[in-house]
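Let us work through a complete example step by step.
Step 1: write down the sequence.
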Amino acid sequence: MSFRDIIKKSVLESFTGSSITTTTVCVTLGITVILALYLFAVYYLSTRKTFYNKTFNVSLAAIAVITASIILAMQSNLAISLGMVGALSIVRFRTAVKDPKDLVFLFWSISIGIICGAGIYEIAVIASLIITIGLFALELTPVGNASGILVVNCGSLEQETQIMDIVKESCKRPSVRSRNASVAGVDFVIECRAKQPAGMLQKLQALDGVTGVALMEHDGEVNF
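Step 2: predict the structure and record it as tokens.
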């Protein structure tokens, strides 16, 4: 028997499926379902104060069970495993993930299915606990305040100095992002973080020539 025949025989014997019994399937899928429900609860608790998507949460639980089933099928037969690889290679997902945090839960769900399907339940349980502790611990870390967008409508460009002097009294490192001049007047768009926005707006409105003031918050990058 040549070396190639030995390798071929060992590979084929590893996919005989003799170790995949009904008990193994039931235990694997049962543990996967428990961890999938745990993932369902963690996602609900971590996102209920923001934008909770029940459909996505249900999909996370289902993906874990489906992935575990695929891994079990791939272990049972070499032909099935090759067919799964070919079938999954042509699948394209075009749904955009709106929140980067959802990617964490998506990979978490897939990893639960892969690890449980491989029969390494301890890693799936310990990893799930560590990820949960890490997620909730990192949520408690303080973050900086997002900058606001201040729009000031006035009569001329010469008033920029007066406006910026008032803004600097209440804001840290303000910067003028744009100056729009028209027949009706001039619009200044200023990026700033106001400590006392109400007082700043009152002072700006009291300036001669200022016809309107608006302060808007945005959910963009956070400045520290």
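Step 3: interpret the result. The mean pLDDT is 80.
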